[in-house]
Amino acid sequence: MGLSAKRRFASLMDGSALNLHIGTEMAAIDAAEWDALAGSANPFISHAFLQALEKGGAVGGDSGWDPMHLLLRSDDGQLLGAMPNYLKHHSYGEYIFDHGWANAFERAGGAYYPKLLAAVPFTPATGPRFLVRDNRPDLKIALAKGLETLVEKYQLSSAHINFLPSGDAHQLAATGWLGRTSIQFHWHNQTYADFDDFLANLSSRKRKNIRKERASVAAAGVTMLRLTGAAITQAHIDAFFRFYISTIDRKWGGAYLTHEVFTQLGKTMADRMLLVMAEYEGKIIGGALNFIGDDALYGRNWGADIDIPNLHFEACYYQAIDFAIEHGLSRVEAGAQGFHKVQRGYLPVTTHSVHLIAHDGFRDAVARFLDAEKRGVEAEKNHIAMTSPFKASKQTPSKVTSNPADPTDPTDPTDPTD
Fold first, then answer.
1. pLDDT tens track for 362-410
2. How many CB atoms lie within 10 A of CB 35?
3. Is the bond into 43 cis (omega within 30 degrees of 0)?
4. Distance CA 380, CA 390 (A)
5. 370 and 354 Cβ atoms separated by less than 8 Å
6. What is the spatial distance between Cα 194 and Cα 393, in angstroms, rounded to a whole number?
7. pLDDT one-digit tens code per residue, 315-358
8. Cα 340 to Cα 87: distance, rounded to the nearest angstrom
9. What's the CA gap between 336 and 316, in Å, rounded?
10. CB-based contacts of 315, cutoff 8 Å, min separation 6
11. pTM of the model
12. Rounded-to-integer distance, Cα 261 and Cα 325, Å
């Protein structure tokens, strides 16, 4: 299905005309224009990141991700708003799972695919989805209406916006979109002086366990390297891709990201990447890939050639905490899945998505499901929080920031911490 759109809106703020366009590839969108709206806080919504996914073949072509980026322009051509958006022919690589919705709708005789998804492919991290000038609410409304128009015009089943900030999620829910919550695990920096200062806030047993885990990796003869910027070479990219594929193979999953995606990221975003590499007997044998935001470190993928006890924890969690403390970052986002993260200082947070369902009857059924699911998510979050490793007087309040992968879905193997 080939979709196209050009629609005029009246801006709710000043009555000026807005023109909605669809960009079918990032290469045709001016990077400076896009990034002026995206800002620098979140690396995943940058032009470079989204274009790397397209140039590397992870989206577009026969991937099931057809780029349909929304662009709001004024009559004189200024880009006032944008949204990363895709026509999806399946539900893989999203980390907000609606396979059950698709099956139910199709059993009832409907066609769930294709659908619209405003998100960053393969990236369960909360960030802006409405990229608008001066954070104008009227421009956000226009972009949302643009999605609604496409759903109606092309008789699509639904539109979805994943991992958006809570404020935007609540505003859309007030207009009829269905809200959904999930759980992720984040570490929060309480202005720690160093890693030992962080450990001092944990219970004695948890503190001793972390020290034991870190010591065991060093005792095994492993040296940890933290690389960013020009220190990341193509050889490092090649090695990391090998680790990434080995993790996929062990999980019986499918590799969403290609070698060319990682190569493109290394060429265009090395300064926003932190590549933690493990060296053993003179060879790089494992690594974890993180992306650096203005105030957060985002853990993404991990893998290793050989199994060394506790290397996973060291590469994915402890090195990230060290880096965040040294660079004054407020948090480390480590994705979903895991009590093992809680015991290492990563506490549960709530993340958000919103969903527009076109069919009234199906919408009602999904709404009932989401009401029940939300109660379960909150109960789970509270239960997990009770196992916090922090001393009672040092509990870190949960904050709303990002989103997850599903621990029950073998098709999404790229969470860095499995």
1. 999 999 999 999 999 999 999 998 899 999 866 554 433 333 333 223 2
2. 15
3. no
4. 18
5. no
6. 19
7. 999 999 999 999 999 999 998 877 799 999 999 999 999 999 99
8. 36
9. 13
10. 224, 276, 278, 286, 287, 288, 302, 304
11. 0.91
12. 29
